[in-house]
Specification:
The complex is a heterodimer of chains A (about 270) and B (about 675).
Chain A: H1 12-22, H2 24-35, H3 43-52, H4 65-81, H5 87-102, H6 107-116, H7 121-146, E1 152-154, E2 157-160, E3 163-166, H8 174-190, H9 195-224, H10 234-252
Antiparallel strand pairs in A: 1-2, 2-3
Helix pairs in contact in A: 1-5, 2-5, 3-6, 4-5, 5-6, 6-8, 7-9, 8-9, 9-10
Chain B: H1 2-23, E1 33-34, E2 55-65, E3 68-78, E4 85-92, E5 98-106, E6 109-112, E7 114-117, H2 118-131, E8 133-142, E9 145-153, E10 158-168, E11 175-180, E12 206-207, E13 217-225, E14 230-235, E15 241-244, E16 249-255, E17 264-270, E18 278-283, E19 288-294, E20 308-315, H3 323-337, E21 344-350, E22 354-356, E23 362-363, H4 366-377, H5 387-395, E24 404-411, H6 418-428, E25 433-439, H7 445-454, E26 459-462, H8 465-480, E27 485-492, E28 495-500, E29 513-520, E30 526-532, E31 537-543, E32 548-549, H9 553-573, H10 581-590, E33 598-607, E34 615-618, H11 630-633, E35 637-638, H12 644-680
Parallel strand pairs in B: 1-12, 2-13, 4-34, 18-32, 20-21, 20-24, 24-25, 25-26
Antiparallel strand pairs in B: 2-3, 3-10, 4-9, 5-6, 5-10, 7-33, 8-9, 8-33, 11-17, 13-16, 14-17, 15-16, 18-19, 19-29, 21-22, 21-23, 27-30, 28-29, 30-31
The chains are: A mainly alpha (about 270), B alpha+beta (about 675).
Chain lengths: ~270, ~675
């Protein structure tokens, strides 16, 4: 018995080619953004990881109907929004179409990885940086007050005894969040994690990063105010930041309870 | 775990809400800022087409005759931009200056300013400004800080403003000193900017960064004429040209644009260290004035001084960073090391908060002095300048019986709470004396002198590191034994009234006793000064018939009014001092003086501006020499994240560690399972 003949137009490869063709303005913009210095080109790491875990087989098979609908809807949204939304959001919609036709079985995690390859950090820093810094400042002030210090938070400044420590733009925790999400997504893809498991992992990563960034602000405040017998220097700042990030990463990627300790539960689409 | 994560997100949401509530209540405070040469709407800099530096030069001409200095300051404004300007310039003055005249020159027109009540003068100026007339307004923000506004300087205009003041030179140790303050130092203020009183808003002034060249021209000429041959004519602050025009006369000149960032300090002696003392009279049309200067007696030999207690109050704020703090450290070291074991001391360091060396004063043992010096040496100079809480804390320290207490405040005085400080000291110093050391190239002399006056002590100003040693020596002399106590001044044979000061304080420094007042009647009788030198009674008589009659009575009248205004101003700061506003205003209007409540306003009646646009430009000031940028905006500590590359590396290491741990656990589990199966078998 011979397998039913597949129309070349309905193969994954053909649809992928069509999506890539539709997204050439996005690809061009992406290339320009990588080189203009406005963002660290670290998205390439996420892109590399996404390509490494892209499916190697089944490209000549037809795309599942559910995914085909996803591609069609995403491309329709992309076409309609093209004239109205900024390039980054346009790219995000197009990435959704790409993910629908090319994602492996860990679709959510792979799509996240692909999305993280976009130059998000500077934009997120611009729009979400200040609220995140304010939250970090307030949380750090609360912790310090619990320790008996009359610290007050004003905007993104921690004040104590006439001295001030500023939770400025590079203190928002967005870089830490991006890195941990990228690692978590890579891990989830590598382990073939399903949507629920991936979401659980991302939630844990986000929570761990927020907590680590607050503790980091508290620790650096103590260093700057000489409450710790450690002289303030960039090296000390980095050491504290990296140690807390390592703890956050460990908490998020905890093997015994985390997504990677369990077998993949969800079948291929 | 799930519960913990949920709780965390709830906390996150709560904090976000709290943040929203908190950020709406935040207020900006009045504070100086760095000048940024930006243009355009919304920027702090001047608008498009505006000349960012309208003040082109300042020319100072002083004539010193005996103990009187008449000073003329000419500010030259020009507009090289394309839009009409209003220039605002904050500049310093001598704390003893009686500013009595202002003239506005617009082209070839000369307009004499009128003295008006402050609010009225401001209204006149604003009306002229709106009407397109060139006008100038001179206001006193502090007795040593003035603000000049010049409105409607049209493109291509050259406008000059000339102000005149008289000052009394008081010799110290036989040395006469003429000081022309160069720049107003940046003031620390914690007052909220919204709703700040108009006399405080000048604090929000732009400053050039340290080392940034101030393009404004600065030149100075001082003609000195003494009653005796001049000696040791020198300038410690600058390198002027000194040209002797005879034994009794010298002309000192300076042309140095870079010299405006510090006080110009010219000193000289009269031959043999004599001072010009005696009785001076000025007979005006309506009133007659006198000025008595009495040379102090020689300091007695120190026989026995009771145990003394010194409380040092040291400013370690951002503006003291660098030379001022280093000089202060050296000064305290010298003072502490000169103490005897029976003396005691304490040290209070203050910036945004204060740090007390010991809960109560400790005996001046070598160990205690070493420990205190170590604490002082650790200071780097950073943070705000919360002077009032520090003074309050120091003044409330417990005092031992039978001990002579002295407070020593060391600061550059870059605060805006002068009146409050004077009141605090006056009401709390008790029997103690307060000495104030101002350290810096352009200190706030108003604060330093006012603090010392309020605390019945003496002011010291140290403008360079070398002067610190000399000041420490003088301080030791002062606190060891006063020169004259129980001073009384009596008029015999003529009627005198409105004496200034009302009561004479003990004479600590080797500078003359000065009494001013009005008198009536014929020129007969004499003034008698009595007191106690510590070893013997003191008496000196000054005959009216042999007094020096000054040709211009206006000088004496203005100096008397200035002294009276200063005393009323001090009383105004006192809690029970009442409202002295009416009296000060009246004096200002009667004697044509610039005061807190009277201003000078000059208006050119020709409407010169037709365009609706008028840009207001605040003239940026140079930072006083030796003052670090930290005085304006000290670097705030931050907590930046590590670089993303480092984060990626660490993340991957954690991932590998987790993988390795997972593998080990699986091997262990497999081992346990196979052991269990073997055991079952």
């Amino acid at each position: 018995m011979t397998a039913p003949r597949v129309s070349p137009v309905s193969t994954r490869l053909a649809i992928l080619a069509a999506v890539l063709l539709a997204g050439w303005p996005v690809l061009r913009w992406y290339g320009l953004r990588l080189g203009d210095g406005s963002d660290e080109p670290l998205g390439l790491l996420a892109l590399g990881a996404a390509l490494a875990f892209a499916p190697r087989a089944g490209w000549l098979e037809p795309l599942a109907e559910r995914r085909l609908h996803g591609v069609a809807l995403s491309l329709a949204a992309y076409s309609l929004a093209y004239a109205f939304v900024p390039p980054l959001l346009r790219a995000a919609i197009w990435v959704l179409a790409l993910a629908c036709c090319a994602a492996p079985k860990a679709a959510l995690a792979w799509s996240t990885l692909l999305a993280l390859s976009l130059p998000w950090v500077a934009t997120v820093q611009f729009y979400l940086g200040y609220p995140l810094r304010c939250v970090t400042t307030l949380a750090a002030a609360g912790i310090l007050r619990l320790c008996g210090l009359a610290v007050h938070a004003q905007g993104t400044v921690l004040g104590w005894a006439g001295e001030r420590v500023l939770i400025d733009a590079p203190c928002s925790g967005i870089q830490m969040a991006w890195t941990l999400l990228a690692i978590a997504a890579t891990t989830a893809v590598a382990r073939g994690a399903g949507a629920r498991e991936s979401l659980r992992l991302f939630r844990r990563a986000g929570t761990a990063v927020l907590a680590a960034n607050t503790v980091r602000a508290v620790a650096l405040f103590c260093v700057e105010m000489r409450l710790w017998p450690v002289a303030s220097s960039p090296g000390v700042h980095d050491a504290i930041g990296l140690t807390l990030f390592a703890l956050a990463a460990w908490a998020a990627l905890d093997w015994r309870r985390g997504v990677c300790a369990t077998a993949p539960r969800e079948a291929l689409p | 775990m799930k519960t913990a994560v949920t709780l965390f997100w709830i906390l996150f949401a709560g904090l976000s809400a709290a943040w929203s509530a908190e950020t709406t209540s935040g207020d900006r405070t009045l504070s100086p800022y760095f000048w940024v040469k930006t243009t355009g709407p919304g920027s702090d800099g001047p608008g498009v087409g505006a000349d960012p530096l309208p003040l082109k030069s300042t020319r100072v001409e002083a004539t010193i005759a005996g103990v009187f200095a008449d000073v003329k300051v000419t500010q030259h404004y020009a507009n090289t931009g394309t839009v009409p300007l209003e220039a605002v310039y904050v500049f310093p003055g001598s704390t003893r200056a009686a500013v009595h005249g202002l003239t506005l020159f617009v082209g070839d027109r000369r307009l004499e300013a009128k003295t008006k009540e402050r609010a009225e003068a401001r209204r006149t100026y604003e009306a002229a400004k709106s009407a397109g007339k060139t006008a100038s307004l001179l206001e006193q923000q502090r007795p040593n800080v003035f603000q000049m506004n010049v409105a409607n300087i049209l493109p291509g205009d050259d406008v000059s403003v000339e102000l005149r003041y008289t000052e009394l030179l008081v010799p110290d140790h036989g040395v006469y000193e003429f000081v022309y303050p160069g720049v107003v130092g940046p003031r620390y203020s914690n007052k909220p900017a919204p709703g700040a009183p108009p006399e405080d808003t000048w604090v929000q002034n732009p400053y050039l960064h340290k080392g940034e060249q101030d393009p404004t021209g600065y030149s100075l000429r001082v003609d000195v004429a003494g009653s005796m041959p001049l000696q040791d004519v020198r300038c410690r602050s600058h390198a002027p040209k000194v040209d002797y025009r005879g034994q009794n006369e010298a002309v000192v000149s300076l042309d140095d644009p870079a010299g405006a960032n510090r006080d110009f300090v010219l000193s000289y002696r009269l031959a043999g260290g004599a001072i010009q003392s005696g009785l001076f009279l000025g007979e005006g049309k309506d009133e007659k004035f006198f000025l008595l200067m009495v040379q102090p007696p020689a300091r007695p030999t120190l026989a026995q001084v009771p145990p003394r207690e010194f409380v040092f109050i040291l400013d370690v704020s951002g503006s003291m960073n660098g030379f001022p703090l280093q000089t202060a450290k050296g000064l305290i070291r010298e003072l502490l090391e000169s103490l005897r074991p029976q003396d005691s001391f304490n040290v209070l360091l203050f910036a945004g908060a204060s740090d007390l060396f010991s809960p109560s004063s400790v005996p001046a043992t070598p160990e205690a002095i070493r420990a205190a010096l170590q604490r002082i040496d650790e200071q780097q100079g950073s943070g705000g300048t919360e002077l009032l809480p520090a003074l309050k804390r120091a003044l409330s320290l417990p005092q031992s019986e039978g001990v002579s207490r002295s407070f020593v405040v060391i600061t550059d005085g870059y605060v805006d709470v002068e009146a409050e400080s004077f009141r605090l000291v006056r009401e709390n110093a008790g029997r103690a004396n307060l000495f104030a050391f101002g350290i810096g190239s352009s200190v706030n002399r108003f604060l330093i002198e006012g603090l010392a006056r309020s605390g019945q002590g003496e002011p010291f100003v140290v403008t360079d590191p070398e002067a610190g040693h000399e000041a420490a020596g003088r301080f030791r002399d002062y606190v060891s034994m006063p020169l004259l106590t129980g001073v009384r001044v009596k008029m015999e044979g003529f009627e005198a009234y409105d004496l200034e000061p009302g009561a004479c304080a003990d004479l600590l420094a080797e500078r003359p006793l000065i009494v001013m007042g009005k008198w009536r009647g014929e020129r007969t009788g004499h003034v008698v000064v009595t007191g106690n030198t510590g070893t013997a009674p003191y008496r000196s008589e000054h005959d009216m018939t042999t007094a020096t009659v000054l040709p211009d009575a206006g000088g004496l009248s203005r100096l008397w009014a200035r002294a009276r205004i200063a005393e009323l101003g001090d009383l105004e700061g006192a809690r029970d001092g009442g409202d002295q506003k009416a009296a000060i205003t009246q004096l200002g209007l009667t004697y044509n003086l610039l005061t807190k409540y009277t201003s000078f306003v000059a208006v050119d009646e020709i409407v010169r501006r037709s365009s609706p646009t008028l840009q207001t430009v605040k003239q940026p000031l140079p930072l006083p020499a030796g003052v670090e940028n930290s005085a304006v905006g000290y670097p705030v500590a931050a907590a930046p994240e590590p670089s993303t590359v480092a984060l990626v590396i660490v993340g991957l290491i954690v991932l590998l560690a987790a993988l390795w741990r997972n593998r080990r656990l699986k091997i262990q589990e497999a081992g346990q399972e196979s052991w269990g199966e073997t055991k079952t078998k």
